[in-house]
Amino acid sequence: MSDISELIPRLAIDTSTEYLSVALQTKCGIFLRHKKVVNKHSDFIIPFILDVLKQANISLNEIQLIAYTAGPGSFTGLRITLSVVKGIALPRNIPLVAIPTLDHIAYQVHNINPQSNIIALMDAKINEIFIAQYQSSPFKKIKSDFILRKNSDEFQTLLTQDNMIIISNNNFHENEITVKNILVRNPKADQLFKLLDNTTNYSMSNAKNSTLMYIRNKVALTHQEQRLKVK
User: Fold this and answer.
1) Across the chain, what does the average pLDDT equal?
2) What domains sit in the chain, N to C, each tagged with a CATH number?
3) So what's the pLDDT on residue 174?
């Protein structure tokens, strides 16, 4: 099987936040569409893909690899991406690579301060946060994705460490956290290519076996479960 870095042209898609990001890499360069679409990912994802293909003057049949963010994040946006990439990949036998959203967010700032670790945060709703921790240089995940409550002692302890903290703007407001060194980053799909080329953390799979990453056992809690969690 070919090395991931050798599979060009390749497509990358991120719909984990209110932004839709689609990138295409060819031997001529990288073509990117990145726009805040809120909850209208389904309206724009196909036009964005067609647009980058048109810019690069290639067809879908020439794509050798598709990378996509697999979660956590916008449940609807992620499901849309999975449906689209499977629809493209299955009849053409294109391999897929699923990348955790927090890896994508964290990698965009890994070279700002090589001496610092990174804490990547993302709003998980119902007063909870998705979290993962990373080493900056070389970039490496040191604690896999997990969930904490915003008002928990463990979360507050994390915020006081000498780390770089990154948050997505997926309905997550800076004023909810009072700590220095917070950087706001929205995942841009072109960064997925760099992440693939500079790490060995990800493997290819076929469209049939590709899926999303669910940190919670359930997508939504019932009202009764929510009340129990607050107690």
Assistant:
1) 86
2) 4-101+187-216 (3.30.420.40), 108-184 (3.30.420.200)
3) 52
